[in-house]
Design a protein that fits this description.
five-stranded mixed sheet, alpha/beta, 6 helices, 194 residues
Length: 194
């Protein structure tokens, strides 16, 4: 019945914990919390996590030139959506593990769907994304899937926070042309004061 040699629940826990902390710390925590008959090691954790990542990557779908659905004049006919989105995206450089002289840019973001005071019973929904800027060929698809998983409608209020980088602005404009864009003043201040 199971196509994998590892239970899906264990793969889920390995992948989830490995995305939050190092493989070694994830391994220690899983061995402490779960009554496992098998002996896990860091190589197995890394292999299992990469296997889950490849499966999720295959399910992502093809990149598209744009993700804006319909004509903006028709958006007023859509039902009024619940909540408002706030999406923060920023990049940072990480040193290459194999070639210590080179870095690569990692883009990370967090999408929060928050609800008004009258909808206090609903707690905010948080989703995160990340990708390597120069290697990822589906960056727009990733952001689109995160927003769609939270129920984004074309007429929904969405605010993007970023440092004004052209690549990030382009990515944001592909998601919603009516979005509000707010410049992260920390980056601007750093450029003016340094």
């Amino acid at each position: 019945m199971l196509t994998e040699s590892v239970a899906p629940e264990l793969l889920y826990m390995e992948a989830k914990w490995s995305s939050l902390v190092s493989y070694g710390m994830s391994l220690d925590a899983l061995q402490d919390f779960l009554p496992l008959d098998l002996i896990l090691d860091v190589k197995t954790m890394r292999y299992d996590t990469l296997k889950v990542a490849k499966r999720l990557e295959a399910e992502l779908g093809e990149e598209q030139p744009g993700f804006i659905d319909g004509d903006p004049s028709d958006w007023v006919l859509l039902p009024q959506p619940d909540g408002a989105f706030t999406v923060g995206i920023d990049g940072g450089y990480v040193r290459n593990w194999c070639d210590k002289k080179h870095n690569f840019e990692v883009i990370v973001g967090k999408s929060t769907l928050s609800f008004g005071e009258d909808e206090a019973a609903q707690s905010p929904s948080h989703k995160r994304l990340g990708f390597v800027q120069t290697l990822d060929t589906q960056s727009k698809r990733r952001l689109h899937e995160v927003l769609q998983s939270q129920g984004l409608q074309m007429n929904q209020a969405i605010t993007f926070l970023s440092d004004g980088d052209d690549t990030l602005r382009e990515l944001q404009l592909e998601m919603s042309p009516i979005a509000t864009h707010i410049l992260d003043w920390f980056h601007l201040t750093m450029k003016l004061t340094v």
